[in-house]
Amino acid sequence: MKKFLIKDIQPNSYFTKITYLDEAFVITAPEMPFQQEIIDILEKWHIKSICSEGDSTTEYSARNEDKDSGRIPVNISQSDSDKLEKAEEFYSNFLLFVENIFVKAGISDELDIKAITEKIRDIVEYIKEDRRFLIRVLKNIEPAEGKNYVATHSVRSTILSIVIGSYLKLPAYRMIELGIAALMHEVGMLKLPSQIYLSQRPLNAQEQKAIFTHPLLGYSMLKSFGFPLAICLAALEHHERENGSGYPRKLNSEKISLYSKIIAVACSYEALSSKRPHKEAKDGYTGMLELLKNEGKQYDETVVKALVLSLSIYPIGLYVLLSNGRKGQVVDVNPENPRFPIVQIFGEITPDGKIKTAQTAQGALTIVRPLNRSEIDT
User: Fold this and answer.
1) What is the pLDDT at residue 308?
2) How far apart are CA 209 and CA 216, in angstroms?
3) 215 part of a folded domain
4) Per the domain annotation, does 338 fall within a domain?
5) How far is Cα 216 from Cα 153, in angstroms, rounded to an integer?
6) Other C-beta atoms within 10 Å of 108: how many?
7) At what angle do helices 301-311 and 258-272 cross, to 10 degrees?
8) Suppose 343 and one of 106, 235, 328, 369 were both cysteines; which one would form an S-S bond, judging by CB atoms 3.0 to 4.6 Å apart?
């Protein structure tokens, strides 16, 4: 494996082999240009070099890639469209449930533990059966402007946390605890004035200081309602970081609970990939890079790997440009190689009327780059 200094890499050049952040995590594939944006991010992270078994070149050629694997067609029946529609309905109902729970918590200081537990049990079961459709919904449905971001962030973080927990093979009772903890991790925000946590302007120093109290407020609130200690601690610790740089207690790795570690990764990825009043959403690929660069510094290594392998380097739901010039969307992971997920090809169906999908593969159909929603509509 050869090392290449970031300062020597020409923007929009190509590498003849995969490039890695280290010897495990992919930055670019041979068909992807090493864009200036990637260089800027790596320099911002103070990363001085990347690894590759290939060489740098100014132009991409399919001859750069090995030809030992071919395209594997994977056809999905029309019933998958029904499953996606049902997943959208399921997500909307879950969001409505959480909005109602949070309204009651904020106004009348009321939390129905039984109802929350039953809902999370349903979520865990649904993800077990139709995970990939629900993850696609997270990308397809952008959080609506004017909605309470605490509710939408909590819903989306809960789904991602349960997906991570599934990959880590947590037992059923712990999956339910994890789901409840993820759903309730921001509940302390509801104890703050809404003009602070729903503000669409930059917060002043006093308001930022108030925001830093929400883990303590959440812990106290959940404890007062008799939630298990593991769930209360997740609310308290979800902003703690592996290197001790988090808050409120500046805990380091061995002192942070597992639920908190999972929620930290899930809600950070959700925040990176969702639009906020003061920022645009990053595509899932860039969001993954953001998390990978923090591995061993802020986030637990095992949990980050679980997210990557559950969603792939090109996460489920990501819109992509394919090497055949068509546009598509990632619909499932390839458990043997997270760099080559299964994609749905827009505008194509099989002779028997099924939605056309294919597993991307080296030397065959590959992902050239992520696309944003505006590029899909054109």
Assistant:
1) 84
2) 12
3) yes
4) no
5) 19
6) 8
7) 50
8) 328
**Domain span including residue 1:** 1-65
Q: How far apart are CA 213 and CA 192, in angstroms?
A: 9
Residues 59 and 83 both lie in one domain: no
Query: Are residues 125 and 49 part of one domain?
Result: no
Beta strand segments in the chain, E: 2-5, 14-15, 19-20, 26-28, 49-52, 56-57, 72-76, 319-322, 327-332, 342-349, 355-359, 367-371
Q: Which pLDDT does position 279 carry in this prediction?
A: 52
Q: Are 279 and 271 in contact (CB under 8 A)?
A: no
Task: Annotate 307-332 with DSSP letters as a single string.
Answer: HHHHHTTTTTT-EEEETTS-EEEEEE
- Please give the C-alpha separations between residue 186 and each of 42, 129, 140, 192, in angstroms, as whole numbers: 30, 27, 24, 11
> For the segment 329-341, what is each residue's pLDDT rounded down to a tens digit?
898 888 777 778 8
Are 8 and 140 contained in the same domain? no
DSSP annotation of 143 reads: P
Where does a domain end: 292, 311, 330?
Answer: 311
What DSSP letter does each residue of 117-137 carry, written as one string? HHHHHHHHHHHHHHHHHHHHH
Using the predicted structure, report yes or no on whether residue 63 has a pLDDT greater than 70. no
Chain position carrying tokens 């505008």: 347
Only one residue has tokens 């790997």, namely 305
Instruction: Read off the pTM.
Output: 0.73
Same domain, 31 and 146: no
Domain membership flag for residue 92:
yes
161 vs 67: CA distance, rounded Å: 37
pLDDT, tens digit, 9 for 90 and up, residues 360-370: 988 889 998 88
C-alpha of 67 from chain center? 32
* Token pair 């200690």: residue: 229
DSSP 21-79: SSSS-EEE-TTS-B-HHHHHHHHHTT--EEEESS-EESS--GGGS--S---EEEEE-TH
74-88, 175-189, 233-247, 324-338: least confident range: 74-88
Residue 70: pLDDT above 50? no
Confidence label for 139 from pLDDT (cuts 50, 70 and 90): confident
